[in-house]
Design brief:
Elements (H helix, E strand, L loop, with lengths): L1 H43 L6 H13 L7 E3 L4 H9 L1 E4 L2 E6 L2 E7 L4 H4 L7 E5 L2 E2 L5 H8 L6 E8 L2 E8 L1 E4 L3 E7 L3 E6 L6 H15 L5 E5 L8 H8 L8 E7 L7 E3 L11 E5 L6 H11 L4 E4 L7 E7 L5 E10 L9 E6 L5 E3 L7 E3 L5 E3 L8 E2 L7 H8 L2 H12 L13 H11 L9 H15 L3 H19 L2 H4 L1 H26 L4 H10 L2 H7 L3
Parallel strand pairs: 11-12, 12-15, 15-16, 16-23
Antiparallel strand pairs: 1-18, 2-9, 3-4, 5-6, 5-7, 7-8, 10-11, 13-14, 13-18, 17-18, 19-20, 21-22
Helix pairs in contact: 6-7, 7-8, 10-15, 12-13
Length: 544
Amino acid sequence: MKKKLTLLLLIGLALNAAAQNEKGFEISKNLEIFANVYKNLHTNYVDDVDPGKTMKVAIDAMLASMDPYTNYFAESDIEDVKMQVMGQYGGIGSLIHQEGNKIYIAEPYEGLPADKAGVKIGDRILAVNGESTEGKSNADVSSAMRGQAGTKVTLKLEREGKEMEVTITRAEIRLPNVSYSGMLKGGIGYIRLDEFTQDAAKNVREAFRKLKRDNPGMKGFILDLRGNGGGLLSEAVDIVNIWVPQNELVVETKGKVASRNLKSRTRMPAEDTDIPLVVLINNQSASASEIVSGSLQDLDRAVVIGQRSFGKGLVQNILPMPYNSQMKVTVSKYFIPSGRCIQAIDYKHRDANGRAVTVPDSLKTAFKTRHGRTVYDGFGIEPDIEVEHPASSLLAVALYNRFHFFNYALKFRRAHASIPAPKDFVITDEIYHDFIDYLSDKTYDYTTYTENIISDLKKVAEEEDYMDNLKQQIEQLEQTYKEAKKADLIRHRTEVSQLLKDAILVHYYYRHGCIEGSLDEDPDVQKAVETLSSPAEYNRILNR
């Protein structure tokens, strides 16, 4: 029997070695073919070939067949890597936007070089270091303003018809990952986390401690991860650790390389294992956001509220490459405490058009939380309480895309030296009707579904030769609808007012003011406050 087992083992090892040798040969063969293709291209192609550009195109095409998170970064793109991983870059600290062929300052970040130099929202950028922005894209101008910390950049700006030049010393820009923290009605604490960049856990922990210290009667807490696309896995584990005891499994990663298969556990004593906790997510909450919300759900430590998350259960590592280039590679999948992986897209399998497919319902598996609640893998984190959000109106989209909120806010700021605090500022009837007057000579055309149906009706009537009989009725319908559409600014006032409020608040209170000013009207936040204010309902959801 021993001899048979030994023989089978030897055969297995031999087959495995043969398979590895065959794979190694295939790799060597195809690398040689690729090198010869490039050599022949460089030698024989009718025009000169740019080596760096051509190779970058080839690499990007190869990686496109994997998943969208596996990327190659040339030396010139390293600033983008720092921005993704560390939340920092060398620059002046300002958002810009393009309106037609003009580039404007959209928002200088509070306390960073552009803000300190007096750059304002709405300043038009005419030139960067003497080079005109005429004909340049948003990306071109953004790239020109970035650079090594300590170097200077000179901007030629236009403000209210006057030109000026300002020279700014670039700095290492590190964006705050905690964009707002504060108290809501009913003694509920709140923190908005935008990214899982370096020190995210430290900053959340410190903000939570301060809220508890300053508000000893705090009854519950909300962690807002909506729109948070993820970041560092280690930061996610440490954030869970704020509310979960030491040595709890948070996430396990499994991949091809055994050394990267890790079980990540909480490392420190928790800050608070008892306070009622809600995590807010939406369809843009991904990766590390799903580790935090999913593990807290699996451990029955928090109620998850909002909309189903993105479904990214893949882990990437940054790998060094020759000549100061880097590669971001998907190295494993992650599994949260119940054992589920929430990856929603199967990049290994493609449909007839080459698109990656979603995990079918038939392959989704049920798992159990610590208290026995049923949860599923394969489609992101499903909230315990789903809050429906109406789709944005076509009117609001048209006004936003035409920069009418942005430009009216500029006009408003010039006319008002100050406004009430974010929580107290409201779009009054006077402000709203002034906005309507402002729009009276502006273009913001949009075609509604009803208009499309009327247009289709006309086409069908003409095709079927009914137009002569229906022309008068269709024209009357068009006129009636045209009159009704004029009332869209009144019908959609709540939505339009909130967008207008955001555009105005950022002028006076920066980004944190926009967040603070929106919380009282935010349906997800209000549902969270309602749930935390009802201990019986909170415990029922968690089956305590």
